[in-house]
Amino acid sequence: MSTVPPAASIGLSTNHAPFIEQARAHGEIFIRQPYELYSEENQETWRRLYARIRPRWERYANRKFLQGVSNLALDPNAVPKLEEVNHFLAPLSGFSAKAVSGYVPAYVFFDCLRTRAFPTTVTIRDGRQLDYLPEPDIFHDIAGHVPMHTDKSFADVLVRFGEFAREAAEHVAGIRDEHERLLRMESILRAMARFFWFTVEFGLMCEAGQIKVYGSGLLSSFGEIEHSVSSPLVQRYPIRLEWVINQAFEINHYQPLLFVVESFEHLFELVHELEQWMKDGRLDNVAPGEPGVNETDLKSFLRK
User: Fold this and answer.
1) Within 10 A of 87 (CB to CB), how many other CB atoms are there?
2) So what's the pLDDT on residue 303?
3) How far is Cα 109 from Cα 77, in angstroms, rounded to an integer?
4) Alpha carbons 95 and 110: distance in angstroms, whole number
5) Counting runs of H as helices and runs of E as strands, what totals does the chain give?
6) Taking CA atoms, which of 42, 80, 94, 207 is between 20 and 30 Å from 142?
7) If you ran DSSP here, which 8-state letter would residue 77 be given?
8) In whole angstroms, what is the distance from residue 168 CA to residue 148 CA?
């Protein structure tokens, strides 16, 4: 006679989480964090991820990130509770971590940033595969992204980028020819994705004459955080907008090309410049290549 394991033993692993699967089946994007479902294996995975990357943060992360980790009082021994994260986060920048069931259409994601909400994955990667993850998990989102959200200057960059997304949707809405509207929106989305990738996800910053990491994709990667700063195989260039929006990238290997900003104020100015380029038509035909723009993301903008 078979028995059904208790809910807590099922867990919230990225590759197996019935709670998440059910939410997706019902079309639910925003959910609660069912903390009671984390298994001991999930908790151990968090402990292992945190313990091994903390020394690399101390060496390679920018000081605003390190201050953010301290301000959030992240527990190295337990998966964070979002309500506790938000207790520390909201007073600092107005941001909050908002639990989601997984993939969020691009426009919805960016519009959350505009309102100072960060869509946050609640599942955690399988403990047998700590390094490579093709999609975000709670370690990437909370340990990689959210400490940066405690800094007001960086938080304002995210809000400004969210506002830019809304302006992009309005920008193409007035184009009567449907084919032309699709082509322009696809090109603008590709430019946006590349900009976000090379800054928020994989950005480097010059700090007191040294290269430091502020991109969450690097900050949540035990191997790549060191590789991005130290490896001779990585090309590192001062950021230029025309390079970033025309530079293809792939997600399944260490990045061979990264860009360096001067400050978060500089990054904010770049988002403003990106907006002006869109208005001038300079994002209407960026270089082809990765990332691809899927139909769901495209429609999420065109419906606005």
Assistant:
1) 13
2) 74
3) 29
4) 13
5) 15, 6
6) 207
7) T
8) 25
Closest listed residue to residue 71, CA positions, set 158, 154, 149, 141 = 149
pLDDT of residue 127: 78
Tell me the C-alpha distance between 156 and 271, whole Å.
11
DSSP secondary structure letters along 120-136: EE--B--TT--S--SS-
Residue boundaries of the structural domains of the chain: 7-302
CATH architecture of 7-302: Orthogonal Bundle (1.10)
Residues ≥6 apart with Cβ < 8 Å to 172: 181, 184, 185, 188, 301, 302
State both tokens at 144.
């990689």
Q: What pTM does this model have?
A: 0.92
Chunked mean pLDDT (size 10), the chain, 304 residues: 45 91 95 96 96 97 96 96 97 98 94 97 88 82 97 95 94 88 94 96 95 96 96 97 96 94 94 94 93 91 77
Whose tokens are 């869109």? That residue is 278
The strands making up 235-238's β-sheet, listed across from edge to edge, are 210-213, 204-207, 257-261, 235-238
Structure tokens at 109: 């994601």
The two beta strands, 257-261 and 235-238, are: parallel
Tokens of 132: 């490579």
